[in-house]
Amino acid sequence: MSLLQTLWLTSLLLSGASLCVVAGLIVHRAIEHRHRKNTERRRRQIEARFLGYLDGTFDGAQLAAAAKSDVILATEVGLSLADLVRGRDYERLIAILEAVGVGGRLRVNAAHGTRAGRVVAATRLRHFRNEASLDTLRRALDDRDAEVRLAAAQSLAEIGALPSVPELLVKLHVGTGEQSQLLRHIFRRLVHRQRGALVELLAGKPHPLAKELALDALGHSGDYTVLAPIMAASEAADIELRAAAFRALANLGHPSALPAVTRGLVDASWVVRTQAAVAAGRIGLVDLVPQLVKLMADPVWWVRFRAGEALMALGAAGEAAVVATSEGTPGPAARTAQLILTERAA
Amino acid sequence: MLGDETVRALIVGARDFAVVVIGVGLAENLLYFVQLSVAGWTLSRHAPRKRPATRWRIAAEISPPIALLVPAYNEEATIVENVRSLRALQYPSFEVIVVNDGSTDATLPTLIEAFDLKPMTRGYEPAVEHRPIRGLYGSSRYANLLVVDKENGGKSDALNAGINLSRAPMFCAVDADSILEADSLLRAVQPFVDEPERMAAVGGTVRVANGCRVRAGRIVSVALPNKLLPLLQTIEYLRAFLIGRLAWSEMQSLTIVSGAFGIIRRSVAVAVGGYSHGTVGEDLEIIVKIHRYMREHRVDYAVRFVPEPVCWTEVPESPRMLGRQRIRWQRGALETFFKHARMALNPRYGRVGLLAFSHALLIDVLAPPIEVVGYVFIPAFWAFGILDVDYLVAFLAVTFTYGVFLSVGALVLAEIELRRFPRARDTLVLAAAAVAENFGYRQLNNIWRIIGLWRYLRRTQGWGPMKRIGFRQA
Questions:
Q1: Where are the domains of chain B?
Q2: Contacts of B197 in chain A (CB under 8 A)
Q3: ipTM of the complex model
């Protein structure tokens, strides 16, 4: 057979095979469609039983028996309800789900399921706050897949059972690959239990991302005792760290950050100057009105704009300064001031 | 009568010609086959799935603010519905910026009336160039909506105005005739959450909305178009997004983030000078510019495609409108290819230069004219006894039967991994369309591509009239 004939026959074989596969899939879908009504009926039935159990009109033993006969459906329905109920109802629901084997199934899936299955199981295990689930979640922190590790860390964060900060940094590969913004969520959750460890991070020499996470978490702590280490971080060599420190100071909103913010307004990096201006406005540092007015002539538009916004946030003194700048010598500062004023007036 | 020598020369010439035509067709099919395989492998590992609601709630807490840029030119039929749909998206922090690019219809008055807009001002950094802005409009009732009225300058010019006025770190370019799924932004932003430092741009899937039922700016019932051309485009979009873009993304060579729905980091767009003026393929060009800039400045970056976020768009229903669109796309692709020709096959630009540009050279430049010439001459040569039947069947294989395999293959992949169509009957209709598109529609597309090539050489441009039919209401 010539090459040209082979081309033709191969194309016929491939297109014929693809048509056969698609025909099979269509038949499979049609059969599945016929079963869907039945599944929907069973779903409604078990949903009604769960709701009946919660409002005391359906017996727990009967529900357990029904759920055990279709654990997959019971898992879906039960965990959907778990996202909606709170308090004693939530505890009763989780207890019965554990009793019918949903927790056990999730623990097996979290350890041995497919990648997608492990992520889902690790996320759902946050409902099952027993030692077996905690063990599974802790082991999942060593999973080969980053998404599974993050899902497990999130669940442990919600339960309040995260490992120590240094261990977490290693397990989540912070500084050695992992960059996800979910890390912020996780670190914010551990700040109240491990504040000291986060402060130590700032003093040590971990990866800059670890320090950024610590600054972000401490900024959300609402605890003014962490001001000093954050202010020290605002003098770091790394631009991103300095900017993160000013974001944290802005979130804490304590006026004793004045010296650091004053220094930040004349930082060599425009990114840092912008964050320092935002912090001045958010903290309400009226003493910095003259410096913010100067910043309205900054070469970078975003710095000028944020300085103007900060002045407007400082009340009468800041507003008067913006008005005076708008009426002063024509230039970038006056233009920014005029824009800020017209924008506010509109 | 021709002499023996002339006949022999004619036969040899015809065979060489046929070998070139079949060779180009085969190369084209092989490329698509590689893409199909890569897409299949990727989907089997990372099939998009419905995540637990809590995962999305957590993602929402840490997701960056986004400005949705909606360039609008004569979009009075669909603009209000589109803006309503965009404002109803599930996302923690976003602003809709509609840029009326000097429309000659009632786009602006329609918006003003529907959203009770009043003139307003907003300071902005003139970071990228665009035609003058005539006015800004906002409403106290719709706080996250800004309407920019500017002089006509084309879609790229309108997007640049939107970039300047946006204050979010990301912007999402959305076509005014499109509807986004409620959670599409949350899903599409995931790569920016996963790799906040590296991610430069992310594209999502665009699906055909013709035939679907729309209520209050939402798709309430997914159905196939009941007209032939939109149906054929449904298969085409499925193949282009599910196979093409997913494969390119996986090979780190994605050169297009759809203008209908794509998120770009604002600072990166500003660094490359925004969308280029005088181009019709602005969505392709800006991504190529980003690749070029990042590689020339040795910045670690990524451009990704996420298969699940869905944007629904109304596709042309008449051959005339479809032809215009395809001619414009072809011109856009060629403009970008030749504008950045120094990237082609240049190792400095990595896989983008080596793979994506080779692909563009083959698919956009060489294949269409060669295939069309093949349709005329190979059957003629066979009819006159100059070529063996083997050449004819091999030509039919590379132009028809391999095409059927690839189209149906895409459908098989979609059915196994994504299940995008609700009924078995839909899959059956699409399978028929996947076969049918190779007989007529493919050839029509090639002709439009050749016209696009011709128009590119003559350099004519503009938005081009695109009649909107409006969505079918539930």
A1: 7-474
A2: 179
A3: 0.83
